[in-house]
Amino acid sequence: MLDFLFGAAFTPNKCKTQLRLCVSRIKLLQNKKQVTIRQQRKDIAQLLASGKEDSARIRVEALIQEQNTALAYEILELYCELLSVRVEIIKLNKSLPEDMQESVASVLYAAQRCSAQLPELLAVKEQLQAKYGKEYVKRAITDESAIDEKVNPRLIDFLAIKVPNPKAKLALLSEIAVEHNFDWE
Q1: Who is most buried in 24, 109, 166, 172, counting CB within 10 A?
Q2: Of 102, 81, 106, 121, whose CA–CA distance to 157 is shortest?
Q3: Which residue ranges make up each domain of the chain?
Q4: Superkingdom of the source (predicted)?
Q5: CB-based contacts of 182, cutoff 8 Å, min separation 6
Q6: Which residues contact 47 (CB under 8 A, 6 or more apart)?
Q7: Are 88 and 132 in contact (CB under 8 A)?
């Protein structure tokens, strides 16, 4: 009733619903990513087979980013499922239970970076912010303090926008060549 004065209150049912919707959307996005990844691998193999190594090297960077995003979605799906099951525990505890720190912080971190693809995460973020406060959320979503707040380091790595390691690019190109039965080096 006085939400407009004090900010939104934590609503367990809304949080649980948004988490479940998020899991459903993640599953859809994972399927799309897998199709995209398969197609990109096929395209890169064709480029390598036709001697267009420079184009293949450029395309493999996009493939690595897609694979990282797919892996991030897997982690995020698990955390969303966990939180949806434990939303009553969140409701009953005034402070964040220690065994849920990683899942809560990781979902908040991902909400900042994946909200375009997963708009439900913004609603979850608002709910968690109502429960644990703006300062905690700010620390969880900031790259500098995310590790301190127990955000999953693999999730941070998978969601980072960075140039892939040259060795990783070469390894993936070699893997694609082997997968499609031709020599490349």
Answers
A1: 109
A2: 106
A3: 10-179
A4: Eukaryota
A5: 45, 48, 49
A6: 53, 55, 56, 59
A7: no
Q: Where are the alpha helices (DSSP H) in 50-115?
A: 53-85, 87-92, 101-114
Q: Which two tokens stand for residue 123?
A: 């609603």
DSSP-assigned letter for residue 165: P
Report in angstroms the alpha-carbon separations of 26 from 22, 121, 172.
6, 11, 25
Q: How confident is the model at residue 28 (pLDDT cuts 50, 70, 90)?
A: very high
Which is it for the CA torsion 72, 74, 78, 84, positive or negative?
positive
C-alpha–C-alpha distance, residues 175 and 37, integer Å: 14
Superfamily name with CATH number, domain 10-179: Vacuolar protein sorting-associated protein Ist1 (1.20.1260.60)
Question: Comparing C-alpha atoms, which of 118, 137, 131 is closest to residue 76?
Answer: 118
pLDDT digits (tens, 9 = 90+) for 42-83: 999 999 888 888 899 899 999 999 999 999 999 999 999 999
- Calculate mean pLDDT across residues 126-132: 92
The angle formed by the CA atoms of residues 176, 44 and 178, to the nearest 5 degrees, is 20
